[in-house]
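Now read the record:
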Amino acid sequence: AEDGQSAELHLVRSNPIVRALKTPQNAVIAVQGPDSYISPDWYEVPDQVPTLNYVAVHVRGTLELMPQDGLHDMLDRISAHFEPRLAPKKEWLTSKMTDGVMDRMMRMIVPCRMTVASIGGTWTLGQNKDAAVRQRAAAKVETDGIGSGLMQLAGWMRDVP
């Protein structure tokens, strides 16, 4: 939900978690943000070791099954939230699905909701290094990084939250 009090998701019906959700369960959803391998050479100071810089968020709460008849609406809400961000691509809608295919696919997944109890983050951005050392490593992440979200990660390395 927009207020951060809950999160909707779906799981493949064959996932063992679904069987455990016959009753609501405490759960953690880990969301991985940008990451990159950091070569010790990028710091340009002696006696460093390789590391992985990353950002991650952990959402803790109670996970429960939602009624199956709400799945179609949930999928529509998810796509309505993300599809506009892909402009100028024309938005995907469930109505684009071939007759019967959506129903078959929805039988393979189950809707869930997590009621959020807490949200926490963790990151390693070289925050234990001097600013100049972090700046050099951030520049190398932008040009030579191996990972995901490299530009965003480099920006956070430059200005540690």
Observations:
- The two ends are 25 Å apart (CA to CA).
